[in-house]
Amino acid sequence: DKVEDDRLRFQYVRDGETIIDEQSSSTGIGDISVFTGKTLMHTGNYAVTLRGQVKLPTGDPDRLRGSGGTDAALSATASRTLSERWSMSARIGAAYLGGGDVLPELQRGWSGFGGVFVGWQAFRSWSFKAQLDAHSPVYKSSNIDQLTETAIQLSFGASARIGRNTFLDLSFTEDEFNPDVSSDFAFQIRLRTRR
After folding, report:
1. CA dihedral 73, 78, 82, 87 (to 10 degrees)
2. Summary count for the chain: helices (H), strands (E)
């Protein structure tokens, strides 16, 4: 409420020193993530899956499109099919945060995360999803809530089967639960395949 609409400025000042001051929007590649997973147990309507992820520092940390560090995460997901059209799952995990270039002196080494998911197979090739995610803070020692508080986000999306084992996922994320900590709005598109 202190500036006109459609203006952008990310500024971080610590002990009188300006560490971040980004005032213009930019377009480009962010950090790229690689995922893998293995189903550990599958019995009837239940499944337990172990997933791993590595995030590579391909984005520009000076333009806040990436962290500048390589991160790794491991999580376990328990899934259940409730009916022919409905499914749900819950996930818990931990992430190792490699030394990044965005406020490195404040970055924590580890972060915990988790979430719950509900899916509805509306048509043969289309499904709709809702997901609630949370993660512990990734920064420490700051008076800014956005850096040191737990983030909670609600996502809605759709998945379209565009091949035998290929899917196109579209989703948007809203900061309904803690708007001072989570992103205001985010849109994601993902192409995935499975064996």
Report:
1. 0
2. 1, 11
Residue 68 tokens read as: 């500048």
pLDDT tens track for 86-143: 999 999 999 999 988 988 888 999 999 999 999 999 998 999 999 999 999 988 888 8
Residue 171 burial (10 A CB sphere; 0-12, 13-18, 19+): middle
Whole-model pTM: value is 0.77
CA angle at 71 for the pair 37 and 130, rounded to the nearest 5°: 55
The rounded distance, in Å, linking the Cα atoms of 96 and 55 is: 10
- Cα–Cα distance for residue pair 185/62, rounded to 1 Å: 22
Q: Tell me if residue 138 falls in helix, strand or coil.
A: coil
